[in-house]
């Protein structure tokens, strides 16, 4: 480094400083960055004579570009050093026996460094560790299944698996074509269903990934149904985390997917009087499924249960809201009345086909409710309240009679 510095000083003294003195410039005024940029200017334009004036605008541009290059290289060095430090830290934690994944990508490492706290970093690492563990287990099961199949083939070689596999492939291919034809028909004639993709800022990276996974499940359920919806992904920005996760899941099929993806809001695409925002926080309960309306589902997971976010958004846009009548048909046991996106899709598809709430609400997880009720819950509450009041009334009459008897006995004793 010292030899390089001395070489640079010699070049400056021999090339720039004599030229600067001829033009009346002082040596002390020119700092190192400016002398470097001046030397670059002089090297680029050797044709200018001593009598010509220096192009100060060009000089400033060269100076600015040099400074930007220096800042970019410094930021790159800093980023590389932080990533290297994070990798070393993870290696230490792995040796200490913590839940750290064996293989971690550059993107995951960057997400790890961007975590706001140490607890968030630990949670993210645990999530990656469990994900890797599940993948390993799935791979192990596949290998065992393959080995079992080979053993069965060796034991019973008479079975002609080629015909069987070709039939399965032919059936799957023809079924896919039939499903795609239905969805294509729904895009022209079917009822629309909107997924609101404007909640990326309200969720962490992990929650966005879970949301996209649920939407992928919803799309596959819709595609296999007898009368599918025409799905719209509204407020889906380009290069957003939602879109990146969709491309990861669908890969080349994302461009061929039979859905409508747009960065526009649903109020710009559809008339407001036809839109109904489905949210668990709505005071209005949904009574029947309306085939002429367009239902909106907020693309947000229920991990942290942020109450009122979707309701506030719907009110801000001046839209009608509705909640599923869970309390009306189910004796709720515990937990919030929030469902996953694929469960919502199954409920809406069943309502669309049958209109039967009991059949539709079978997709609600059984851990969340005790049982179905024959009468609506509010009617049961009324009858229970009536029974309690009657009981209390009878009890009060009994107390009065006992008090009257005891009082009469006291009077006779006196």
Automatic annotation (TrEMBL):
Stretches of the chain forming a coiled coil according to its record: none
Q: Name one GO cellular component term.
A: nucleoplasm
Question: Boundaries of each SAM-dependent MTase TRM10-type domain copy?
Answer: 179-371
Please indicate if the UniProt record lists Mitochondrion as a keyword: yes
Report keywords, A-Z: Coiled coil, Methyltransferase, Mitochondrion, S-adenosyl-L-methionine, Transferase, Transit peptide, tRNA processing
Q: Which reaction does it catalyse?
A: guanosine(9) in tRNA + S-adenosyl-L-methionine = N(1)-methylguanosine(9) in tRNA + S-adenosyl-L-homocysteine + H(+); an adenosine in mRNA + S-adenosyl-L-methionine = an N(1)-methyladenosine in mRNA + S-adenosyl-L-homocysteine + H(+); adenosine(9) in tRNA + S-adenosyl-L-methionine = N(1)-methyladenosine(9) in tRNA + S-adenosyl-L-homocysteine + H(+)
**A GO molecular-function term, please?**
tRNA (guanosine(9)-N1)-methyltransferase activity
The principal location of this protein is mitochondrion
A GO term (biological process) for this protein? methylation
Q: Which Gene3D superfamilies match?
A: 3.40.1280.30
Q: What is its EC number?
A: 2.1.1.218, 2.1.1.221
Task: List localization entries.
Answer: Mitochondrion
PANTHER family, sorted: TRNA (GUANINE-9-) METHYLTRANSFERASE (PTHR13563), TRNA METHYLTRANSFERASE 10 HOMOLOG C (PTHR13563:SF5)
The protein's name is tRNA methyltransferase 10 homolog C
Gene that codes for this? Trmt10c
């Amino acid at each position: 480094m010292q030899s390089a510095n001395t070489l640079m000083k010699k070049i400056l003294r021999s090339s720039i400083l004599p030229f600067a003195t001829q033009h009346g410039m002082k040596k002390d005024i020119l700092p190192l960055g400016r002398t470097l940029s001046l030397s670059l200017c002089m090297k680029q334009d050797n044709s200018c004579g001593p009598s010509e004036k220096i192009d100060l605008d060009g000089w400033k541009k060269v100076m600015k570009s040099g400074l930007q290059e220096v800042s970019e290289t410094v930021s790159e060095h800093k980023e590389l050093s932080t990533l290297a430090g994070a990798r070393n830290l993870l290696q230490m934690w792995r040796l200490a026996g913590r839940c750290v994944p064996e293989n971690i990508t550059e993107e995951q490492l960057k997400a790890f460094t961007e975590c706001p706290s140490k607890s968030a970093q630990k949670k993210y690492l645990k999530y990656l560790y469990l994900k890797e563990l599940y993948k390993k287990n799935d791979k192990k099961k596949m290998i065992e299944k393959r080995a079992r199949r080979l053993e069965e083939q060796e034991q019973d070689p008479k079975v002609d698996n080629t015909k069987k596999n070709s039939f399965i492939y032919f059936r799957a291919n023809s079924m896919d074509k039939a499903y795609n034809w239905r969805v294509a028909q729904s895009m022209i004639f079917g009822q629309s269903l909107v997924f609101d993709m404007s909640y990326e800022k309200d969720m962490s990276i992990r929650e966005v990934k879970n949301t996209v996974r649920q939407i992928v499940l919803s799309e596959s359920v819709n595609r296999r149904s007898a009368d599918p919806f025409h799905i719209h992904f509204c407020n889906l920005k380009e290069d957003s985390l939602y879109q990146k996760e969709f491309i990861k899941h669908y890969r080349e099929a994302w461009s061929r997917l039979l859905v409508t993806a747009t960065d526009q809001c649903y109020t710009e695409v559809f008339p407001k009087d036809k839109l109904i925002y489905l949210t668990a926080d709505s005071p209005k309960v949904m009574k029947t499924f309306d085939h002429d309306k367009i239902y909106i589902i907020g693309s947000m997971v229920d991990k942290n249960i942020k109450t009122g976010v979707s309701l506030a958004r719907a009110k801000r846009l001046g839209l009608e809201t509705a909640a599923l009548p869970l309390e009306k048909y189910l004796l709720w046991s515990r937990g919030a009345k929030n469902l996953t996106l694929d469960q919502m899709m199954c409920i809406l598809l069943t309502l669309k086909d049958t209109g039967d709430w009991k059949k539709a609400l079978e997709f609600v997880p059984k851990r969340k409710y005790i049982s179905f009720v024959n009468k609506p819950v509010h009617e049961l509450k009324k009858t229970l309240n009536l029974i309690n009041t009657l009981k209390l009334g009878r009890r009060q009459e009994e107390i009065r009679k006992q008090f009257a008897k005891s009082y009469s006995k006291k009077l006779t004793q006196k």
